[in-house]
Amino acid sequence: MAGAPLTRRRNFGPRARRVVLILMDVDGVLTDGGLTITGASGESRSFNVKDGAGIVMAHRLGLRTGFLSGRGGVAVTRRARELGVAEVHLKVVDKGRAYAAILRRLGLEDAQVGYIGDDLMDLPVLLRAGLPVAPADAHPEVLRRVPFVTRAPGGRGAVREMIDAIVRAQGRWPAVMGWFARSTP
Fold first, then answer.
1. d(CA 81, CA 65)
2. Mean pLDDT value of segment 93-118
3. Crossing angle for the helix pair 49-60 and 158-169, to the nearest 10 degrees
4. Residue 82 phi/psi, 5° resolution?
5. Confidence band (pLDDT; 50, 70, 90) for 41?
6. What are the tens digits of pLDDT across the range 75-89?
């Protein structure tokens, strides 16, 4: 997945170089959209480990990350905590309003935000964020409106693909490879 570029309708690099915050929807982006409901109001979701590794890598490079989801749940809260995601906004009814509040509080501009979302309720953010991205299996209307689409579907490495592309565009890929590709005597 690290070498798989996003499908691009516009020049990705200049937009990606400005990103300091990566926000993402959860269901259909970090997960495949499946939801298992168990007894006693229990829910479970399946998260992609590669997406998580990408989020940790982003943090190590000084990028901020956040979840912006219309749903919530113990599994999402736990995953955010495990990954060190600082911005966690769950059960959000109006994503556009929540997004604007995040930017005001952090003192950021739209151009500094990369957002990945897959459904109609993500459009208010996707239409504002400097780097709007959708997973390959996003709603057709979302796919029509965003300039960047991952090759991977939601829950199958789409977030990792986006993060890798941002890191490459920012010229930080050699640093990442330096963490892991050192030869040992």
1. 12
2. 98
3. 30
4. -60, -35
5. low
6. 889 999 999 999 999
